[in-house]
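Supplementary Methods. Inverse-folding protocol.

Structures were first reduced to a discrete structure-token string of length 248. This string, shown here, constituted the complete conditioning input.
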């Protein structure tokens, strides 16, 4: 099982929160990030680690709602989108907490085996949901895994997502290294990119991948104790707006 939740790291979410609360990278400012679109404002709020709240057009979407995110402070979900099977992305208890009558769930087929109320959306598939378009894109490891010949995230199992509303294209990468499919992305307005060893990639690799697809704005997320200054420095002079926020 992945996370600080994973026994190999032996770091609890509480410890990570304490470490980052003392870090110069921790931000006490309002976490909600606001973007204007042709269809109105989109608000994206970091909740914890990979858990993300997206609101627009009177709809509430959660990406990877999972403990210890404080979900009770936020509205119930109209749509829940899950990237992978690990406990920091797929948390049945959190899904239940934010669900209401009519809540829809989209997830990779591997997740649907556990979250049976979810509708499957595999790599390369897309779905129109009201005024939104949700595209499932690959998310996987190229070289990192728990043992020789094994990967933490096999190709085809998990999803990243491109969520589009009012012309705004938001890329939520999920658990991935800087794979060719990421580097080939086009016309991304806002990107959320992971960097945490040993499970995804270090900040310098993340920065190199981000330079390849060149979003207008990028947020590091799902970063644990990674040195975000390395990521930020790696994108200096690129013209990409790097925004560091506290996810813990």
């Amino acid at each position: 099982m992945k996370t600080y939740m994973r026994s190999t790291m032996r770091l609890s979410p509480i410890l990570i929160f304490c470490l980052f609360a003392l870090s110069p990278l921790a931000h006490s400012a309002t976490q909600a990030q606001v973007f204007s679109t042709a269809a109105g404002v989109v608000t994206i709020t970091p909740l914890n680690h990979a858990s993300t709240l997206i609101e627009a057009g009177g709809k509430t979407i959660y990406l990877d709602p999972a403990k210890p995110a404080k979900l009770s402070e936020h509205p119930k979900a109209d749509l829940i989108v899950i990237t992978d099977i690990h406990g920091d992305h797929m948390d049945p208890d959190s899904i239940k907490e934010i669900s209401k009558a009519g809540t829809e769930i989209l997830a990779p087929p591997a997740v649907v085996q556990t979250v049976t109320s979810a509708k499957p959306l595999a790599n390369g598939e897309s779905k129109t949901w009201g005024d939104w378009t949700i595209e499932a894109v690959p998310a996987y490891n190229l070289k990192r895994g728990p043992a020789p010949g094994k990967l933490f995230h096999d190709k085809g199992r998990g999803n990243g997502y491109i969520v589009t509303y009012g012309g705004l294209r938001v890329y939520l990468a999920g658990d991935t290294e800087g794979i060719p499919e990421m580097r080939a992305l086009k016309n991304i307005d806002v990107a959320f990119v992971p960097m945490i060893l040993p499970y995804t990639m270090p900040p310098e690799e993340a920065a190199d991948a981000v330079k390849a697809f060149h979003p207008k704005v990028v947020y590091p997320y799902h970063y644990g104790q990674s040195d975000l200054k390395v990521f930020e420095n790696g994108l200096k002079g690129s013209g990409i707006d790097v925004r560091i926020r506290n996810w813990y």
